[in-house]
Design brief:
With 409 residues, this protein is α+β, with helices and mostly antiparallel strands. Helix content is 52%, strand content 19%. α2 packs antiparallel against α10, α10 crosses α12 and α12 packs antiparallel against α13.
């Protein structure tokens, strides 16, 4: 007898009512759950695809980890220290780096940018040479620089133009202290290549060899801004820091790629949360149809409920029938919605049928089981709350309260 709520709930779900309007309301409620579930999963998958697409630019430009001094802008890193870092199992490659803001001038045009002085093995850490869209990467044989397309466009600079050199200027460390002394250091270089990543980065960085940057900034030969690391996949920052920290006499910071782009990741996470909340609200609105369908079913089945009560069913058991019916609509509707959403996401991944507006680039999507779990959890929580709200006061809606009172009398 305890199993009758399940059997009746399944019967009410699959059987058709004698009233056409009830059947239409039930189908519409089920369809809305399917559409809302599929929509939430598709939107989350599309956002994950866009997030991966956007982060891929930083992944192709930023190292896995960076070691920077805890205090000051520069630190001394000896060759023996670099060798010790390379002995750490999690580290695949290490490249010293100098980064400083500089003033660029080319003919009569000027711009402020960030200079990255890199070692020859920097391409082992970041495959920046693959980003060269015009010209060549540094040969490390002279005063050469590689610009972003945005900087080159602003300055009107071309590659291998030996008639006009790019001038890089920085203030001297002791500039202005001695009367009549030039307060700036300046070096000239030829542009040998242009890289292209995105609009922001193309206007931000200039690459040169390490010795050129050290000369411009008047630094020592083993004085660097940071060390760029390429590490094994899934390397833990905590484990890596424990092995790195004892090698340095002074305090250092270890930053992951996400920490290097903290503002970008924070913005993406906030957008993800906003999208999830908006479409959860859409799902909540869709579940109002389930509430309406349950109330109509309760009113339609009044005569049958009286018979069940006369046969020994309890008010709690009858309440459980409609509660289970609502959960069944949400669960099966959610399952169908996830199947449809998964099929569309998979199809877009394998054979793209949607493109980014104004381009021929396929709209990026990413199938992740965590999104599937999030959609199911959201549906079950909201569906349970909606069903509980719809079946409250069931005895009064179905007329059972009068039967209970008369039976007690």
């Amino acid at each position: 007898m305890a199993a009758y709520p399940y059997k009746i709930a399944f019967r009410y779900f699959f059987a058709r009512s004698g009233k056409t309007v009830i059947n239409r309301i039930n189908r519409f409620a089920f369809l809305m759950v399917v559409i809302a579930t599929a929509s939430l999963f598709i939107v989350l998958s599309a956002f994950e695809g866009l997030k991966e697409f956007g982060v891929s630019f930083s992944a192709s430009f930023d190292p896995d980890y960076e070691i920077t001094p805890e205090e000051g802008k520069y630190f001394i890193v000896t060759d023996s220290l670099l060798a010790a870092l390379r002995e750490i199992p999690e580290i695949i490659a290490v490249a010293p780096l100098i980064e400083e803001k500089v003033f660029l001038s080319y003919e009569e045009k000027n711009q402020v940018a960030f200079l990255k002085g890199v070692a020859p093995n920097y391409t082992e850490v970041v495959a920046v040479e693959e980003l060269i869209a015009l010209g060549d990467w540094l040969t490390f044989n002279g005063a050469e620089v590689v610009l972003g397309f945005g900087i080159a466009g602003n300055l009107g600079a071309g590659i291998y133009d030996y008639s006009s050199f790019l001038k890089l200027t920085v203030p001297k460390k002791t500039g202005g202290r001695i009367l009549g002394q030039n307060p700036f250091n300046q070096e000239s270089a030829v542009v040998v290549g242009l890289y292209q990543i995105n609009e922001e980065l193309d206007k931000k960085y200039v690459f040169s060899q390490l010795e050129f940057a050290q000369k411009l900034l008047a630094l020592e030969s083993q004085q660097y801004s940071m060390l760029a690391l390429k590490t094994a996949p899934n390397t833990s920052k905590a484990i890596l820091f424990k092995q790195i920290e004892p090698l340095f006499k002074e305090g250092v910071r270890v930053q992951s790629r996400a920490e290097q782009n903290a503002a970008l990741y924070k913005m993406l996470n906030m957008e993800h949360l906003a999208i999830y909340l908006i479409f959860s609200l859409v799902m909540m609105i869709a579940l109002f149809n389930v509430i309406g369908a349950l109330i109509m079913m309760i009113l339609d089945k009044q005569d049958q409920l009286k018979i069940l009560y006369a046969m020994g069913a309890t008010p709690q058991g009858i309440h459980r029938v409609f509660f289970l019916l609502g959960i069944l609509i949400c669960t099966l509707g959610g399952g169908v919605g996830l199947l449809i959403g998964s099929a569309l996401v998979g199809l877009q991944s394998v054979a793209p049928f949607l493109s980014v507006p104004g381009t021929s680039l396929p709209y990026p999507v990413l199938f992740e089981f965590k999104n599937m779990g999030l959609v199911l959890l959201t549906l079950l929580v909201l569906g349970t709350l909606s069903t509980a709200w719809a079946t409250r006061g069931l005895n009064k809606k179905s007329g059972l309260s009068r039967l209970v009172e008369s039976k007690l009398v």
